[in-house]
Amino acid sequence: MIVIAPLMTHALIDHPYRLMLASFTLLCASMLPAHAEGFSACSDAYYSGIYPEFTNTKLAQDTQPLCFDGFAVMYSARSRTPLWSAEHLTRERLTQAKTIDRQDSFHEESRLPRSARASLEDYSGSGYDRGHLAPNADMATRSQQYDSFSLANIAPQSPRNNRYIWRNLEEATRDLTEQYGEVYTVTGVAFLGSELTQLDNRVLVPSHFYKVVYIPALDSAGVYYAPNDESERVEVISLDELEANIGIDVLPILDASRRDDVLALPLKAGEPLGETQVSETPSWMVFVAALLKWLVNQLSA
After folding, report:
1. CATH number, residue 201
2. What is the pLDDT of the chain when averaged over all its residues?
3. How far is CA 242 from CA 108, 187, 196, 248, 261, in A?
4. Taking 70 as the threshold, does the pLDDT of residue 16 lie above it?
5. Neighbouring residues of 248: CB distance < 8 A, sequence distance ≥ 6
6. What separation in angstroms does the CA of 84 have from each of 17, 29, 144, 282, 294?
């Protein structure tokens, strides 16, 4: 299955341009990275089916894409954590999620080799929380909820960050989904600096957590970015700044004019969304320009 195929049914593309996109699809099919096949079963978790790209290629070593029920994960055997988890949130999904009570079921990920996976013992007595990247409260079925407790979706998180700051940001993201109908979100971790620590000399502790929030109705994105400590600090930054920090282009299909804008995301549910610039460029032109950028990146890779 070709991951780029969902682009051809994008609602913003008028009929006269579909033939042009079909040609692009055939041209790109043979150049897709190896991870594309791994995400083919869960491409709907990513906006237009296009997943993040590593601009720092060292990060791609020993990684494995994993499809779960309700979200997608890029897992790193080097850190024994996910690098990111991606979700497509809708108003209907969150309405269903509210009917399900939380049932903790943290478990090792059996699809990973034992040498590459984190274990429950790694976190025991560590002083860090088992922090969800794709949060339990986003899950609309028991199957999705169970999958969210896989340690492949978990990273060591500072208790105060996890229980206060990050919880507020997750609630704010769900609130935006309620307001605008749908949101694409990619939640990830970064390992910056030279003094990183490990749990049990196995699981690498992230220096930062981030959450990219893209709102299709606004064609705009913002990024929550927080150090993984007890400081309760959080910034809202642009996609370009995030890429410069972490070496990953989280939304490669997004038009360049959107990447250095900062959508002023609320820090708590119920707070108003800050002003953002909305393009007056026709949607099909924005989409084709983004596709061309993606194609050029693949040719030069």
Report:
1. 3.40.570.10
2. 85
3. 30, 12, 19, 8, 12
4. no
5. 52, 53, 54, 55, 56, 59, 83, 84, 188, 242
6. 33, 24, 17, 31, 20
Q: Which of 187-196, 235-244, 264-273, 277-286 has the lowest mean pLDDT?
A: 277-286
Which residue blocks in 196-254 are alpha helix, DSSP H? 239-246
* Residue 57 counted as domain residue: yes
Q: Which of 297, 250, 279, 281 is nearest to 47 (CA)?
A: 250
Measure the CA–CA gap between 236 and 286, rounded to whole angstroms: 24
Catalytic residues: 132
Question: Has residue 6 been placed in a domain?
Answer: no
Residue 122 host element (H or E): helix 120-123
CA distance 160 to 203: 20
- Asked if residues 154 and 118 have their Cβ atoms less than 8 Å apart, the reply is yes
Domain range for 266: 45-282
Confidence (pLDDT) at 274: 76
Please report whether residue 95 resides in a domain. Answer: yes
The pTM assigned to this predicted structure is: 0.80
Q: What's the average model confidence in pLDDT over 173-198?
A: 96
Q: Quick one: 111 exposed, middle or buried, by C-beta within 10 A (0-12, 13-18, 19+)?
A: middle
Exposed/middle/buried for residue 160 (C-beta within 10 Å: 0-12, 13-18, 19+): middle
The CB density around residue 58, as the number of other CB atoms within 10 Å, is 8
Q: pLDDT grade, residue 273 (50/70/90)? A: confident
pLDDT at position 8 is: 31
Q: 91-110, pLDDT tens digit by residue?
A: 999 999 999 999 999 999 99
User: For the chain, how many structural domains are there in total?
Assistant: 1
